[in-house]
Amino acid sequence: MVDRTQLQGMARDVESLRRRLDEIHLRLEQVDAVLAEHDITSQVLEALLAHENPSHASSQVSIGSGVSLQYTHEGGDEGVALIDLGGGVFGERHWSDAKSITEERRSDIQHLRDELAAQAEQTETNLAEVAKTFNAAAEQLQAKAQPPQPTVEPTPPGPKEPEPPSSTAPPKRNRKRGMFGGDLTLDD
């Protein structure tokens, strides 16, 4: 049997697991956004590398707020991109190197996403188990708190007793009489 304190503890566990699941889902959304950004970056770099003449490629680069800049690369080799090398340090790398770095980062982020998805699945399983245990314990506690209802055996039909006459008139209300005869008072 479970007592009220244990039931409250289970309720806290259920709520804690729900909050944890919400946090994991929020992180998954954030990671998905980063993955989408990496996909776009890889596609742009791949398109630049696939240009029929990589030493003379052009593109439009979005700088935000619906504004794009025209970019034209003219040179003997493939173009160079500035890439975050970590710790706030940026370096120039050829497009193919930048694409490799981006794909490696995307792979690492995908691994993180897979771990978060596994955590979400495990948390959902734990939440279902704890909620099921909580519901069963709550039903037990509720059943224990209610006194057993006496079983009433039906009485065999016998002669019908006359019903009292029903009155349709509302019951009369005794009225307080005020100081001044039949006038209404604040008590009325």
Please give the structural blueprint:
Blueprint (H helix, E strand, L loop, with lengths): L3 H47 L5 E9 L2 E8 L5 E7 L2 E6 H51 L43
Antiparallel strand pairs: 1-2, 3-4
Helix pairs in contact: 1-2
Plain-language structure description:
The chain has 188 residues and is an alpha+beta fold. The chain has a domain at 4-51 and 80-145: Helix Hairpins (Orthogonal Bundle), CATH 1.10.287. The chain is built from two helices and four strands, in the order αββββα. The strands form two sheets. The chain has a two-stranded antiparallel sheet. Strands 3-4 form a two-stranded antiparallel sheet. The protein is rod-shaped and about 105 Å long. The two termini are 55 Å apart.
Q: Give the N-to-C terminal Cα separation.
A: 55 Å
Radius of gyration, rounded? 38 Å
**CATH domain class of the domain at 4-51 and 80-145:** Mainly Alpha
Low-confidence spans: pLDDT under 50, at least 5 residues?
none
Tell me the series of helices and strands, N- to C-terminal. HEEEEH
Let me know the number of strands.
4
Q: Could you say which overall geometry the principal axes of the C-alpha atoms support?
A: rod-shaped
Q: What's the gist of this structure?
A:
With 188 residues, the protein is α+β, with helices and mostly antiparallel strands. The protein contains two helices and four strands; from the N terminus they run H-E-E-E-E-H.
